[in-house]
Specification:
This protein has helices spanning about 10-15, 15-25, 35-45, 95-105, 150-155, 160-175, 190-200, 205-210, 220-230, 275-290, 305-310, 325-339; strands at about 1-5, 50-60, 60-70, 75-80, 90, 115-120, 135-145, 180-185, 235-245, 245-255, 260-265, 295-300, 315-325. By secondary structure, the chain is α+β, with helices and mostly antiparallel strands. The chain has 2 domains: about 1-140 and about 315-339, Aminopeptidase (3-Layer(aba) Sandwich); about 145-295, Gcn5-related N-acetyltransferase (GNAT) (Aminopeptidase), CATH 3.40.630. Strands 1, 2, 3, 4, 5, 6, 7, 8, 9, 10, 11, 12 and 13 form a 13-stranded mixed β-sheet that branches. α3 (about 35-45) packs antiparallel against α9 and α7 (about 190-200) runs antiparallel to α9 (about 220-230).
Length: about 350
Amino acid sequence: MSWRVVPAAELASRPEHLERWRRLHRDSAGSPLLAPEFVLPLLAVFGTGREVLAWRERDGGADVMAILAPSRLGAWNTFQPAQAPVGLWLQGDATPPELLPDLLRALPGAAFMLGVTQCDPMLMARPPDGDDVRTMDYIETARVTLPASFDDYWNTRGKNLRANLRKQRKRLQDDGVPTRLEASRAAHEMAAAVEDYGRLESAGWKAKDGTAVAAGNEQGRFYRAMLEAFAGMGAACVYRYFIGERLAAMDLCVEGGGCIVVLKTAYDEGIGNGLSPALLMREEATRDIVESRRFERIEFYGRVMEWHLRWTDEVRTMYHLNAYRWSWLGRLHARAARR
C-alpha cells in the first residue's frame, strides 16, 4: 500500500481519479457532503490551485482519499471552505492513526503536521489520543432520526413548541391567510431557487456582514452548480414556504446515504405578528420528509442552536484531528495546548 499525491484539479480532469473517488464514496458511509457532486463545485469555486488530491492505493483501488491544502510551511489541512460542513476526507474501514505517518511523508515540502478538520464521528470514529495523533472538540451538531410516522415524532416534541406553532397557524387561519410549502427538485429549477434564496438572505442580517448568498457571488455560483449536480441524479430539494403570496422561508437540501442534509436556511425577517416562518416551514418540511419514507434521518450540521434543541435531542460532537510526523512534535504541541 502506498500514497499517491496529484494536483486536486485532476479530480475533474482525469476520469480515473473521479471514478476512484466515486467508487470509494459508494463503498463508504456515502455522505452527500463527500459526493463528487459536492466536492467538484467546492474546488471549482473556492479552490486556489494549491490543493492536492491524495489517496492510498490498495488492491487496485483506494481505501482513503482526501483533498488537502497547505496552511503554512510544513503544515497541511483538509480543504475546508466555509460551505463544507465536513472535511474532505473519505475512507473505508481504515483508521487514521495507521494512515497518517505515511501520508505526511508523501506530501510535498517536508510536511510535519496534518490537520483533518471538522470530522463527523458518524463518518470517522474518533481515535484515542497518542503521541503522533491528537483530537480536539470542534462543535456539537444535531440530527433527527426519523420514526415511522410524523405524529410519532411530533408527539415527542415539547408542548411549548407544539402549542406555539398551533397558535400561529390558528391566527393565520382566522385572518384568512393561507400558507403553502413548495419543493423544487429538478435541475432546471435550481438557478431560480438560488436567486430566491439570495434575495431572502440579502434582506436580513447576513447582508450587513457580507456573508449573504447572492446569485452572482461565489456562494451563489457554488450553490447553483452543486444543487444542479445533485438534482441531476434526483438528490436535491429546495423548500419554499409562503405565507399568503409572500416568500417567508427557504431550505437548501441535498440527499444521500440515508439522510437529507439541510445546508442553508433563510427566512423573511420582516414578517411580524408573532410569526416564526422558519419554524412553520420546518414543521411542514419535516412532515413531508417523514411521509416520503426515503430517509433515516435529517442532518443539520453547523453549531447546535437553541431552535435545534426544540426539534431533536440527538446531539454529537464533531472534532478536529492533528497528526504529527514525529512523536516528540505531538507531545510538544500537546504541552503547548495545555498551557
